[in-house]
Amino acid sequence: MERGQKVLALSIMFLALSILVGCYWISRSIENGIVSNSNSIVKASQNITDYMRRVNISQDDILSQAQAANYLQISEDRLFKVIDAIPHVRIGGQNLFTKKALSEWVEKSNFSSDAN
């Protein structure tokens, strides 16, 4: 084998080894990130559950956006228009409300269900 062919063969082997090591390193980084994110989600869920126990909120008192609109007897579109004025939390892309917060908001505001 000529010197040039040996260098080419070694270069190809080095490139293949670099790709394997890089893939392993990337997969470990992704795996650690996923584990870290899932631990954060579990911890957030536990914090929400603990908070609900402390303030005496049952699961039945938590409403989705559709349930909140139904509770207020308005459309979801109408609810979305005034959502910034209503106490709620956004978890995982979903707006959640409590019946108590909705009732207090209705009492304090001059909200009208037939308003545009």
From TrEMBL:
Keywords: Membrane, Transmembrane, Transmembrane helix. The keyword Transmembrane helix applies. The chain crosses the membrane at residues 7-27. This is Helix-turn-helix domain-containing protein.
